[in-house]
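Retro notes (design track)

What went well: tokenization of the new backbones is finally stable.
What didn't: we kept losing track of which sequence belonged to which structure.
Fix going forward: every design gets posted as structure first, then sequence, in one message. First example under the new rule, 117 residues:
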């Protein structure tokens, strides 16, 4: 087993499909695709690729720490009580535990994610 994992964007395998919980939908009909790429043996650290189609919904991180790197598309993230921030390809950020806010996908957005629980 290698200690090096590559993200093969042209061969991510079959995605898990879903969307925001119905009670979190604000506007539109966002659809999610999620590809798990790797995880630690204890499953506390996981990494993958996520994609959303346009729509607006409440984002709640709970106890999860998440690093994100936007690969494509345009979205706007508004943390509760803060000004909106537009993210696009090349932008990276961390959503810390207890983050709550609104994710508005403007153009289908794809990101790499790494979470720690």
């Amino acid at each position: 087993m290698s200690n090096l994992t590559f993200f093969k964007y042209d061969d991510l395998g079959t995605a898990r499909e879903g969307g925001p919980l119905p009670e979190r939908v604000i506007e539109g009909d966002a659809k999610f695709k999620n590809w798990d790429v790797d995880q630690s043996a204890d499953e506390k650290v996981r990494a993958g690729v996520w994609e959303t189609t346009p729509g607006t919904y409440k984002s709640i991180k709970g106890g999860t720490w998440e690093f994100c790197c936007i690969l494509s598309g345009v979205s706007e993230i508004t943390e509760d009580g803060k000004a909106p921030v537009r993210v696009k390809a090349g932008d990276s950020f961390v959503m810390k535990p207890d983050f709550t806010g609104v994710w508005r996908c403007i153009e289908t957005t794809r990101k790499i994610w790494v979470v720690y629980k």
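Added context from the reviewer: The two ends are 24 Å apart (CA to CA).
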